[in-house]
């Protein structure tokens, strides 16, 4: 069921319910007040009649006999002051003694309950049906000298009250029906207008899906209301999706490209071996060594790609205390062994503990020192230093190498970006080292800064938050 239909149904239901409740309350209040007015008029009239009879009967020596013999004459009823009012006097055995003229041959009914109650000295007032007309009848005992000598009955037709209430019911029912029709029409119109911008959003989204065009955006419908915010959010989501999608496309293209060159080299060397190089020991050794190098390069590339895939998947890192000075000492020893053509030095070294993943942090510093070694010509120097700078710790990897052009510096952390393509590939890098290093730094709530000038060397500074005292 569509939201439009649901809204209309709910709206109509609520309105009908409200109108229905209002009608019931109105009807009940009116019926009650009309009935109270009728009861009051009957009671007043009964009292008047009672008083006038008492005045006549009280003087008699035997009032009961006087009443029974039907000598009592009822006072005339003022038909203008009390329209539809009837009176009658009964003897204690329930036989009619006297009745008002407007009753003609009719008689006000006396129910057994009212009769019994009157004999007990109680007054009752009830609604009884007489010739299809509702009558409100009051029955009251006539008490003279503490004896019940007869029953006074006063009645009034409820036909006017019933007619008024019936008319009211008719009006209210018509009103509710009209309200229901108006609610359905109005509800459908309001739901239509409220949902029209959403329809436009849906249509545009469908067009984007059908055209496979992530570059399209939904036009803002107008004020920044809920729909406006939905469109803004949707467009922002499309921005993000487009960026991610493009990055993904670039990554796949770059990765295939990077994998192709070692594969071509391996293929070429295998061909050489097939064509007879296997029988020539120096040529064979050269081909096998080349194959081995390219395989290592490919393994590194695949490992780096896997690391970045983990980064993209938001894999959480281990979080333990890492003594950064000890880790750096290890890296220093390793770098010294791996780069005999350079002078690798330990500069300033404070003691510092950070919270993080020791393997990832090692990978971060290995990537930076490898780069420093790769882009520094023989005879150059690579210096590692560690500074405590509360609440941070800063690790500097400084080299006296080729440096980085300022135009390249903003891009070197991008995946597969290389400042000097030919030389870098020759240096054996994958173009992913700094992207991985930056991800690791950021995953530790840190950052990497670079300070470099062509021909003057580079300094990569890694800032990591120091572990608190309680860690
Ligand atoms: P690569 O595997 O090519 O080294 P990186 O992501 O580690 O990839 O580095 C990206 C680029 O940044 C490198 O290709 C290189 O041009 C430049 N670069 C990184 N470190 C240095 C450095 N210490 N000195 C000069 N250039 C550097």
Distinct helical segment count: 10
Mean pLDDT equals 88
Contiguous low-pLDDT stretches (5 residues minimum) are none
**Which structural class should the secondary elements be placed in?**
alpha+beta
CATH architecture of the largest domain: 2-Layer Sandwich
Strand-residue proportion: 15-25%
Shape annotation: rod-shaped
Number of DSSP-assigned strands: 12
In this structure, how is the largest beta sheet organized? 5 strands, antiparallel
- From the N-terminal CA to the C-terminal CA, the straight-line distance is 57 Å
Name of the CATH first level of the largest domain: Alpha Beta
CATH superfamily descriptor of the largest domain:
PAS domain
| Rg on CA atoms, Å | 52 Å
CATH topology of the largest domain: Beta-Lactamase
* Share in helix: 40-55%
Across the major sheet, the strand order is: 2-1-5-4-3
The figure for the number of domains is 3
Bound molecules: adenosine-5'-diphosphate
